[in-house]
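Quick question, first post here. What does this chain look like in 3D?
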Amino acid sequence: MGRADDLKVSMSEASLADLDLEGESYGVVSDLLKGRGLATLYECRMNVLTEFQRGLYEGVMAKVPKEIALFLDPIVVSFALRDACDISGVDFVWLDLEGDGDLGCSVWVREGDGDVVVALAFGLLRRHLEKYLIDVYDRGTREDMVRVWEAGLRLQECPICGEPSPERRVIAVNKRRFRGWTCTGCRHHVVVPSDVLDYLNSRVEGSG
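> Answer (accepted):
Ran it through. Tokens below.
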């Protein structure tokens, strides 16, 4: 994502009623929110995370339940955090950002409220991971990822650290095999979403 001054707020949602942020530069909005006593909880982009965003992502992921950690990525986490903000009861501001051909989002809360939002987000992901995978990855994208894997291709870059090091790999978890890529640098996994959906569906059928 570009420098803060290059980004604009394309949409905002907030528990604070008197904020009109759309169309403003991210730099101006950041100063305004800091003045209101809010701080960045999470920030994400569609492409490779910046160093600042990576630090926020790793901080959030340090609290993630192990049984779903493999299946998460920055965008899936951002969708859950957005829903968690809505039901949290804390003061928050959610921003959709765009500029320089890039898209992203940012969520702000008051100091000390972040743990509440993160805990709610992972509760939602535990119960509704299938919903979030479908919301983030449409059918065409899911099919494209399968085609890339079956063609034996490596990903051009890791979405977390940006290094051209993800290797195509079958990842085994609890006797289940998932197609994907593992970054040899930061160890982040990219798992084919359709494999995760098949796995979740099999668990539902097995419990019936």
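Helices lie at 26-35, 51-61, 66-69, 74-88, 114-136, 139-150, 193-207.
The beta strands are 8-14, 38-45, 92-99, 102-110, 166-173, 176-183, 189-191.
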